[in-house]
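Ticket #4471: structure export looks truncated?
Reporter: QA, pipeline team
Priority: medium

Steps to reproduce: submit the single chain below to the structure queue and open the exported record.
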Amino acid sequence: MRTNEWKIQSLKLVRSLGVVVAMLVAAGWAPALAQPVTLKFATEATPGDHLHYVAAEWLRDSMARASNGQVKVEIFHSGTLGNEPDLVDGLRIGSVDATIVVLGNLSTVVPEFSLFSASYLFSGYDHVRRTLATPKFVQRMDEITASKNVGLRLLGTSVLGPRFVFAARPVRSLADLSGLKMRVIPNPVETQIWTALGAITTPMPSTEIYGAMQARVIDGAEGSIPYIHQQKLYEVGRYIVLTRHQFALSAILVSQRALNRLTPAQRAMLSEAAVAVASRGIDHTEASVDQYIQLVSKQPRVEVITVDTHKFSERVAPLHAEIAARLGVSDILNMVEAAR
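Actual output as written to the record:
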């Protein structure tokens, strides 16, 4: 029932945006009269079922239909324009027009969003859906992004899915994390969380994980199961631990430069399309995660480990309020807790 309520709220938002589009077109901003525009959408994801890649495809197709071909979204995949922090910088300097990145990789520009690197913030998909469907939450996230004056706008937020630990040695309990040399996303909250769980943290870009594990510079890392599968990280971290410690949120971003090249009607179309893509993405993720776990479990030497996550969550839950207060987003944490 809660899932249906979330979908109804999303549809209402999409319909409202559709009314805006109709008003703009009636006022004379018809996309057919606009100059054709090409938007460079870059992602680190490779072609396949990874949310960040399919979201780019959905946005491309939606804009082609809505604009009658006047707005073309050109996809640059597989990290050809850089890793996710690079893509955020690309939005700022104009080498990228749009992207989708996990919020943890946006925290260098919007440090408040590192709150979502706090493990066990969400209890499950429905909790995430209720949070993302809260109008005040959506408004606050966009306000924070815009307030940085770095030329970025947040169009929509989706879910890349639960993240899991993968390691070269088995992790069957919280105690097994003690002393584990672990790669983390380069932001202070990730370091704080994993240090509290007992790991020895090493911040580094995701593109360096395979080589670092192969060289035994690190013992393990964490990430979404589609990424683990597509990058074949199970080859160097054969123990896949179902910690589900974080429901990684993914931000669909556009540069202000790109928005300035669009007509008001086209901007409304892009906003509407991004909202629809974000909501569709949550369903896509929920349907695909178990399939990816099965795919990974069938690889040679791989062992999938189920752990009691209560011990993990009990260790880090007391840190949530402290982190939120330090970042100045206690109100956002309250919204997340109210949606639980």
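Status: closed, not a bug. The export was complete when the record was re-opened. Leaving a note from the reviewer for reference: Strands lie at 37-42, 71-76, 98-102, 152-167, 181-184, 200-203, 220-224, 239-255, 303-305.
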